Amino acid sequence: MIKKPLSALTDQELLQEAKKRKSTAIIDAVLIGFLIGVVFYSIVKSSFGFLMLIPIFLAYKLINKPKHDNKELEALLKERNLK
C-alpha cells in the first residue's frame, strides 16, 4: 500500500489518521507497561538474566518511535481547524 503524504489527505482522512494514531499510542503504552511488568517479575523471581534483555529492548523500541509524524499531523489539523 502506497502511503500518501499527510498534506494530500482530505479532512476526513486526517481525522481518521489522528484517531488511529491515538489508539496506537494507547496500545503502545499498554505493551510497554506489560514488558516492564515482565522485567520486574523476573527480577523478583530470579536474577537478572539474558532473556530479560528482550522485553527491555522491545520497550525501548516502542518508546523511541519517531515522533515527527505526529507533530506534522497535529500542525495540519490545527491549520485546517479540525481539532
From TrEMBL:
The chain crosses the membrane at residues 25-41. Keywords: Membrane, Transmembrane, Transmembrane helix. It comes from the Bacteria. This is FUSC family protein.
